[in-house]
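Reminder to self: keep the SMILES exactly as supplied, no canonicalising. Ligand is zinc ion.
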Amino acid sequence: MDVASLQNLQSEIEEEYGEKISALRRDIHREPELGFDTKKTAEKVLAALEGLPLDIETGVAENGIVATLKGGGDGPTVGLRADMDALPITEETGLDFASEIEGKMHACGHDGHTSMLVGAAHALCGMRDGLDGTVRFIFQPAEEGGGGGEVMVEEGVAEGLDSIFALHLWPGLPFGTVATKAGPIMAAADAFEMEIKGTGGHGAMPHLSADAVVIAAQVVIALQTVVSREVDPVEPAVLTVGEIGAGTAFNVIPEKARIGGTVRTLNEDLRQKMPERIEALARGVSRGMRGDATLDYRFSYPVTRNDAGVSANALKVAVGLFGEDSVLELPNPSMGAEDFAYFLQRIPGAFVWLGVGEDVSGLHTPQFAFDEKILPRGSALLTALALRQHAA
Ligand SMILES: [Zn+2]
Ligand SMILES: [Zn+2]
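Structure tokens returned for the bound complex:
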């Protein structure tokens, strides 16, 4: 392939590697693995990279892979990262290559990301003579909780990189559209669990108890005011109570109730203030009702923050490849989260969404499926991003 002209990159990749990319994707899709436990997926990736002129390191962050391609010159080192893990969901797509493992499914497209990165590795190895610097292909476990990205960074995977990119397939965006933005693109995602403590008793004698169910209900309602009444209206924030539980019998007032939730923010100062506000409100409400509350707050993935220059350049590269109509500068971030954030804390880079269509079921649903024509397109984009990162 000719490095100077990338216009036909997608069709060339489709022709040369399309079948291989799609076969790998289906193979990974059939046998999803969770968290850090991506051993078989990593073996499939290694088999698909066999014969390429790559220095390969395995066992990174348990079952991750880092494969390095050295080009001719001493140009920049560009990282390309894909996630490999699946979700604890039972698939309902009806695809011929649907998950063969009950309760596990690639419902976030990470099978696609991994295959697209393998496609880019093949394309870039084929263009090695025209490659001025180094490309590091990073296959990461445990994106869906577990923070595999953080572990990879701790193990030194980001060291020496000049820039880094990751793609995510994106339902809701027109098929093939490339979208990103400068600054925050995904939110910080933190979690809390709260125990409400009252006094248990007979369902017929509430005056002798402090009803943890009623206290929990009031706390849930009060928590709705944290974002609406305490956060600047122009500052994005979400507080969702996703879990609530109490009680063992219809006629017993339980002593305890449990509430669990997630908090999403884009601003670090606000993020740091949230636990104190949640705890003060929950305890105030609970104590006013003769109970109390304790909060266990866990900071998790930080804000995924794109570098302004690198993300602008990524949009330019996408326009060069696919034309203006296929490229979108996002007006707003998503309040979802992504552990690619840990790489972007160290290295200027961009997290880029690749549309799989507006009528596609959402990420993390049992029906999520996408047209595999997107795979060579994603490979072409990763390839061009690595080649053109430092071009004007
Ligand atoms: Zn996901
Ligand atoms: Zn994902």
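Points to follow up:
The two ends are 21 Å apart (CA to CA).
The longest helix spans residues 9-30.
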